[in-house]
Specification:
The complex is a heterodimer of chains A (192) and B (178).
Chain A (H helix, E strand, L loop, with lengths): L4 H14 L6 H8 L3 H14 L7 H12 L3 H8 L4 H12 L6 H12 L10 H11 L13 H17 L13 H6 L9
Helix pairs in contact in A: 1-2, 1-3, 2-3, 4-5, 6-7, 6-8
Chain B lengths: L2 H18 L2 H6 L2 H11 L3 H20 L8 H16 L3 H13 L14 H4 L5 H13 L3 H8 L3 H17 L7
The chains are: A mainly alpha (192), B mainly alpha (178).
Amino acid sequence: MAHDPTDALFDQFVTEYGQGRDPDVRDYLHRAGEKRAELGSLIDAYLAIAPIAGTDEETAILVNAHIAGHSPVVELRERRALDIGAVVQSLQDKLAIAPALAKRLREAYEDLERDWLDPSGVHSSVWTALREVFAFDVEKLVGHERPAMVQGALLRRDEGATLAAPTAPEHEPTPPDDIDRLFRGRGQAPTP
Amino acid sequence: MSSRGIHDVRDIADARLLEAGDHNDLVESYYGHIVRRCRARTRSEAEALEVAAEVAIRLLEELKRGRQYRVPYRVVVNKVIDWKSKEHYAPKPLKEVELEEHEDSGPDPYSAFESDYDLDVLLEGLPTREHEVAVLRLREGLEPEEIAERLGANRNAVDQAWHRVKQKLKERIDPRGA
């Protein structure tokens, strides 16, 4: 019936939502391309009168993190009533990290928690370990579209790196260790 | 079948949470709805979450102040989403005035907007059969074929009815409060 692509997407959204499948609004808007605003208005008008669907934990974490002004991973950790030390200790055990690297592991985890790491450089074994620690897919919370303030912080870090680049290193760069391989995508992942 | 039935369960659960003073649980139970609508109304995920957080803060602040509502809580939530998302794209002082004026205009300013979120009002004037099609489509997400089968109606008639409902929906879209 719906020949207009926007209408067709809206029809599909109504079907999915009405059947309780919680369609992702972002996905539909992306598919609408330049008709994004038109489809968004239609979906919004529909949602305003439709039965109200529930809240999943990911959404609760994202909104509460925004309200509290910290990252979603911090919000998740606080929801689980865990401190950083406990999380790092669990990671150390699960990833079989040498005790000598415990401090480096903590720093890397703190960077991940602040959303300072490129999630694509984090090894899958880290995501698996974090999923076990938090009983939640932490990867979904990292690298989320960042607010301007955090982007600024990342930019400053990058600028620092750029400024430092022309200076001759005082020491030979250290070879990547297990923490680099696991969290910063440098080299192969360590063998357990 | 009316829209009242669509929202009854939700409204009863909300009233219980309000009565028990479980404000955080009540507002958090709406986060999904708030974020969906904010995503539909804004241009990016960062903006959607920013507006959603502003909506949640506003709702929590009102409840903390002991505000009482004579309308279902979902009406309050929907209206605050409208206000906050418009405010996001407009000069702030103008929007704050709009919000405060509404708040001071009567015993419960939200009641003036209840019909904005009422399916029956949207469907007002539609013949009974079209009304039935709309409710089955909007409430249960039934496909036109399924609706035709359920109502023993012609598929083409169902398509026509759904088309009219969509037109009504489009007619009431406020172009982002511009």
